[in-house]
Amino acid sequence: MLLDTSGLLCYLHQNEPQHQEAVQLLNNASKKSLTHSYVLAELIALALIRRFPRPAVLAFVMDLLENPDIKTVWVDEQLHREAMQLLIERQDKTYSLCDAVSFVLMRQRGITEALTTDRHFEQESFVKLLQSAP
Fold first, then answer.
1. Cα–Cα distance between 110 and 50 in angstroms, integer?
2. How far apart are CA 4 and CA 29, in angstroms?
3. What per-residue confidence (pLDDT) applies to 131?
4. How far is CA 68 from CA 8, 34, 41, 118, in A?
5. From CA 111, how far away is CA 115, in angstroms rounded?
6. Per-residue pLDDT tens for 11-25?
7. Which residues pair with 73 in a beta bridge?
8. What is the rounded CA–CA span in Å between residue 40 and residue 37?
9. pLDDT score at 133
10. Distance (Å, whole) CA 18 – CA 60
11. In which residue ranges of the chain is pLDDT below 50?
């Protein structure tokens, strides 16, 4: 399962409608989960914009990095370029660069499910494990 920004935000923040579901899905994951450095950067920025306590956000991201059940992929030039190419090919979509990196990684590693509320994953034929907020 790929851990996306919105899914991690749901996990982190108890007031998110999908918090309990995100906690259950991540805590009961049967295999290693995957995320990447752009998700972590986006998560920090989004959480701070939403006024989450900075120390808690940074501690959460550090815990993710140290968790042996979560593989963090560091986006290098090649992966960045592949994601940019996907964005060029999908100009009719509103994908972010972070989304595109996720899609490329998921295809490369045969991952079909994402801990996310982002409908863009469904547009790329992946399984979105959390429902969007009403």
1. 33
2. 15
3. 86
4. 17, 11, 20, 26
5. 11
6. 999 988 999 999 999
7. 36
8. 5
9. 58
10. 18
11. none
Quickly tell me which residue has 């994908």 as its tokens. Answer: 95
Q: Report helix, strand or coil for 2.
A: strand
Residue 130 near residue 117, CB atoms below 8 Å: yes
Give the DSSP per-residue string, 37-106.
HHHHHHHHHHHHHTT--HHHHHHHHHHHHH-TTEEEEPP-HHHHHHHHHHHHHTTTS---HHHHHHHHHH
Pairwise CA distance, residues 76 & 65, whole Å: 17
The Cβ of residue 29 has, within 10 Å, a number of other Cβ atoms equal to 15
Give the tokens for residue 96: 């972010």
DSSP letters along 13-31, please? -TTSTTHHHHHHHHHT-SS
Pairing of strands 2-3, 70-73: unpaired
Q: Which two tokens stand for residue 6?
A: 């919105």
The SS3 assignment for 6 reads helix
C-alpha 87 chain-centroid distance:
17
